[in-house]
């Protein structure tokens, strides 16, 4: 029989590494929650049209990387390549913009892009994202960037940088586009590139080919075309970042991979990851909701790549020191088969009281059971035989120091709760 394998290029997490994945994801989520963001849980697949209209046809994501298929009812369905379009669809469909604005939501889950797999680039990957909808205000731009930065600092990451730019408002972009299109029309480009530039001329800044990069070296930059309002907003975002001591670099050539961006846009980049160094990015998307048929509300958000952030943490050696592995409090061993039922009940009751504990299963001799206690990583272990049951008292052994102390069996729960 053929050996079954996971599909090519997907990321998977299993013990012991999965605890670090969980730690990273929960740290990112926590930073969103303490900033007032609420959970949004959305479908993994949506109508294909949502992403074509929302993410944009000029993007690699839509033109090359979507997992699109026909469902049994003949509808075109796509596995979500990103989270923002789905959030907007749901906000419009359920009139969530009638609630207090800004509407602030977070989400977390798997996303799908048929990219060429390599280290840090997967076909199924994980994001934690936030969106703040209904307010065009530099304070909220700052808040969104700070939520990500706080999470990275909480994780203990040091070798990362923040690039920011502004794509301006519609007025700024229209006057820049005119000059950029005129500049591009004078270049000697192949047909596919001309077509791409026709959909979104900014894409050419993102072209990795040296000849295109060279040709674009003197292209007009959007930052020089900002309207007065956009310029003042962008200036304010920078001041707020400076006040918060969040370091950043202005990168006027930064192009995000999705078409909906306007105003403040940003990317976090790790120095430790090689080619796939983007650990998170986002920005404002002021026309998106209207484009998808909703009210003309502004929004800003980010998507953080949990897989890459985990890789960055590992590359920086963070888990050697700062993570407290989720630890069991107690591991209990029955001395003989006679006490198994008693221990099983005791473990169940301790768990009911919220104490994390486990026991040695199977018919292993004491030595083997002690090995299981070691491997479990529990803080304490205890062996219960007929003597302990009779006396109602047991020695609990600190697995680090080797020291033991006597505790009444019926006080075990209180003992561990007070620890
Ligand atoms: P994005 O820049 O396309 O933005 O993705 C965000 C992050 O997801 C990237 O910085 C990267 O860490 C991770 N990522 C993307 N593709 C892959 C992949 N193939 N393998 C591993 N990690 C990957 C968005 O998705 C926007 N929805 C963010 C946003 C929210 N903008 C406004 N609101």
In CATH terms, the superfamily of the largest domain is: Bira Bifunctional Protein, Domain 2
Q: Regarding quaternary structure, how should these chains be classified?
A: single chain
CATH fold category name of the largest domain: BirA Bifunctional Protein, domain 2
Overall shape: elongated
The number of helices is 15
What is the CATH architecture term of the largest domain? 2-Layer Sandwich
For the biggest sheet, the summary is: 8 strands, mixed
Number of domains: 2
What is the residue-mean pLDDT, rounded to a whole number? 94
End-to-end gap: 52 Å
Assign the CATH class of the largest domain.
Alpha Beta
Ligand inventory: histidyl-adenosine monophosphate
Strand fraction equals 15-25%
Strand order of the largest sheet: 1-5-6-11-10-9-7-8
Taking Cα atoms only, what radius of gyration do you get, to the nearest Å? Answer: 27 Å
